[in-house]
Amino acid sequence: MFTSAAASSSWVTGFTVCLSLIVSIGAQNIYVLRQAVQGEHVRACVAWCVVSDALLVGLGVAGMAQLLGSSPTLAHWLQWGGALFLLCYGLFAWYRAFFAPGDGLQAEGGRVARGMLGVISGLAVITLLNPHVYLDTVVLIGSIGARQDGWLKAVFVLGAASASLTWFVVLAFAGRRLQRVFADPRAWQVLDAITGAMMFVLAWWVWRAA
């Protein structure tokens, strides 16, 4: 029989494991931060991230983690794909920073507004087409959650979703606080340059781990 202590333990485990993995500079976090700075459809972005994280972790807990874990070749290709994705993302960021600094900027210095569908579509591509996301959510977090008993698996997923919500709300708030800084178009160049460098470091780290 499950107790409230067991449920609390499962929730805390899901929360801490998920938070420890998502609190890092990645393509999805950078995208949400940029949207928060621009003030475009931030709530929709946060909602997408939380729901997608919960679904991916849930898939891992339901058994997908064991399936991927039993295929070292598939895991290897996921790591290679993740490294390539991060490399391309970094190159695109550096292209904006060094070769097209005015790309996406209006004459008065503001970013060109996009509709919610366009913003969420871009976030969906970054989330679902990044193989490294599946290693973090489905394989790593999912395999830990799969060890929980019975309905405690659902409590674990809820804890992971709570961590995702907490992180992306904090990220959105930080972006709002930085809006005045990014009123200067040169600040976007600096952000893109730093983003590219970080993506290259992450790509190298994932490639070395493959």
Automatic annotation (TrEMBL):
GO molecular function: amino acid transmembrane transporter activity
Database matches in InterPro entries: LeuE-type
Predominant location category: membrane
Transmembrane segments: 12-33, 45-65, 77-95, 116-134, 154-175, 187-207
Official protein name in the record: Lysine transporter LysE
Membrane topology, from the record: Multi-pass membrane protein
Signal peptide range: none
Domain of life where this protein originates: Bacteria
Keyword annotations: Cell membrane, Membrane, Transmembrane, Transmembrane helix
A Pfam family that the UniProt record links to this protein: LysE
CC terms in the record's Gene Ontology section: plasma membrane
Localization, UniProt: Cell membrane
Ranges in coiled-coil conformation: none
